[in-house]
Amino acid sequence: MEKWRIAARRLLTPRILLAHGGGGRETSDVIEKLVKALVPKELWKVEGGSGLDLLDDSATIPVGGKTIAVTIDSYTVDPIIFPGGDLGVLAASGTINDLLMAGAKPIAALDAVVAEEGLETETLARILDSMIKTFALNGVAIIGGDFKVVPKGNVDKMIITTAGIGVILKPIRDNNIKDGDKIIVSGYLGDHGAAILSARKAFGLNLEVKSDVKPLTDLMIPLIEKYGDYIHAAGDPTRGGLAMLLNDWASKNGVVIAIDETQVPVREEVRKYSEVLGIDPLSLASEGVAVLAVDKDVAGEVLDFMIKKGYENAKIIGEAKMPRDPRHKGIVISRTIVGGFRLIEPPSGEIVPRIC
Amino acid sequence: MEKWRIAARRLLTPRILLAHGGGGRETSDVIEKLVKALVPKELWKVEGGSGLDLLDDSATIPVGGKTIAVTIDSYTVDPIIFPGGDLGVLAASGTINDLLMAGAKPIAALDAVVAEEGLETETLARILDSMIKTFALNGVAIIGGDFKVVPKGNVDKMIITTAGIGVILKPIRDNNIKDGDKIIVSGYLGDHGAAILSARKAFGLNLEVKSDVKPLTDLMIPLIEKYGDYIHAAGDPTRGGLAMLLNDWASKNGVVIAIDETQVPVREEVRKYSEVLGIDPLSLASEGVAVLAVDKDVAGEVLDFMIKKGYENAKIIGEAKMPRDPRHKGIVISRTIVGGFRLIEPPSGEIVPRIC
């Protein structure tokens, strides 16, 4: 039987579901069981760099004594203009943040736009302008792109795919977490997911919260320059939220990550909104938040530094531990707000589709 | 008034048309009047590299004494499996060829897939496998990607956006054409466009022609290594075909390009099919053909080299001339098959939408 047929069967569903694109467990399945199964292992990365072996925010390639970081993402959000942002700023911020989280300084981007026939020219121009302004404010050149149009009814108004290129200042690879590392978040979690849900008037409920979408250049570049050696992992909790990111780190590093939910910054209204919708706020996407695993000896200093940089809601929310019992490797647990503990599992199901 | 509103008005149509994505005159409008108007000129490229200033097949960035080439394209073809190929081989070949045409050796790729909910898992696996195999056979690592799913009816089954990274062996910039340069094509033109049209049973006509989609690594790498100094421009005539590519070169270089249609290799059945459909075969896309502008002194030798490499239908089809009358700059003319001359204009209108 053909290799691709075998790979397809391992996914267990004869058709692709929305959940496969949700950024949770099912997306990991697509990557692990389809993509990684089909790519020969020697082509998972360029010699000396990283790629499918690490599945970090960016891949890396050594070039002429330096290392470049490269990332790609397709952005499709409904609605394309939402409280606090739009598809353009989302695409640019996502690309910039993926480079920063790998320890890279973003230098250039390329964008491929697929528009639906009949899209208002002004909407296209406005979204492109948002994207371009966001890149420009962060010193990122826009060096190329593509533009395609598909017949009406074939695309959700507009899909932007952006590729970003950066130069590594200090490599941050997410498989480098040490026993005792503190987990720091840079601000309120879940605002983006909540804002999108609310903009769709999910369940008729309205919420006065804006997306947190923004590039983290002003925070991450000074952090990498000053504390690069002590940042053992960095990520932005987009699709699948903090829950997905911490589970990913726990399994990549074979550690237990223990957090304290009373310390996790979530806006009261977002928490209540999630409760009503029956969604774990830790699974909601953020688009302008950094999560760091930092050496315990400097974690307090790093937190102060972040607060001084204007990230006044930054918090140490927990730590990573090397478990004595190997069965505990890869687990994320949390002290809950009402007391007691709960297991934080990788989110699965649709969560919030078309969110980024 | 906002800059984006002004830019939108310069496009003259209140809504985006299929023609804007056709790769012809209207696509140039989107790039020139929207994108380039909105991106600050100092961000059209990275210092020392190239980007929106040249709009070549790839952008370039100097890194640590070397130069990397980067390209992005979204691929959406209907049907996604067609005679001679599928969306996967198309995406990989397009990416590889865009790097080669800039004088780069392709080394790595990233892919972002947007699938429609309900897509057969086997179709997804088969298309991914095609893409991966094509990259693998050409030594290109697949170092990262993204996977999203949109609700049914929102996307044409599947869109693949690929970014490619290469290392420049010998920069080929398409604004380097010299007086007297010969124009060489590596094989039959328009097979891809004709095959897609036929697969859609346009006008109920069936044609026994396969897409020419393939990476040109085996041709271009030896050519660049041996004749890099003499290749003054290189391109693959995809959307908009040879007509678009030559017009692009003529206007970029301020030359007249004169070709002889009796020398342009087009299969008899493709020519007849185009005639019936009222399409200029020179506007039909090819996905596995190189077009080169080569120094006149070595053009014959280069042609022989190409034929020896297995490209037995390669032909010298014309030449570039510096016109004495500046009003003739940027013009493409052709001797026609029936005798006499005609102006080859940049194609406009829908041509063949969703072709690549």
Concise synopsis of the structure shown:
Two copies of one chain form a homodimer. The first copy, chain A, has helices at residues 3-10, 25-38, 87-100, 121-137, 191-199, 217-227, 241-253, 268-277, 299-308, and strands spanning 59-63, 66-75, 81-82, 85-86, 104-116, 141-150, 158-168, 182-185, 231-235, 256-260, 291-294, 315-321, 332-335, 341-343. With 356 residues, chain A is of the alpha+beta class.
Structure description:
Two copies of one chain form a homodimer. Chain A is α+β, with helices and mostly antiparallel strands and about 350 residues long. The first copy, chain A, has three domains: about 1-45, no CATH class; about 55-170, 60s Ribosomal Protein L30, Chain: A, CATH 3.30.1330; about 180-345, PurM-like C-terminal domain (Phosphoribosyl-aminoimidazole Synthetase, Chain A, domain 2, Alpha-Beta Complex), CATH 3.90.650.10. Chain A has helices at about 5-10, 25-40, 85-100, 120-135, 190-200, 215-225, 240-255, 270-275, 300-310; strands at about 60-65, 65-75, 80, 85, 105-115, 140-150, 160-170, 180-185, 230-235, 255-260, 290-295, 315-320, 330-335, 340-345. A seven-stranded mixed sheet of chain A has the order 9-11-8-12-10-13-14. Chain A starts with a helix and ends in a 13-residue tail after the last strand. At the A-B interface, helix 1, helix 2, strand 1, strand 2 and strand 5 of A face helix 1, helix 2, strand 1, strand 2 and strand 5 of B.
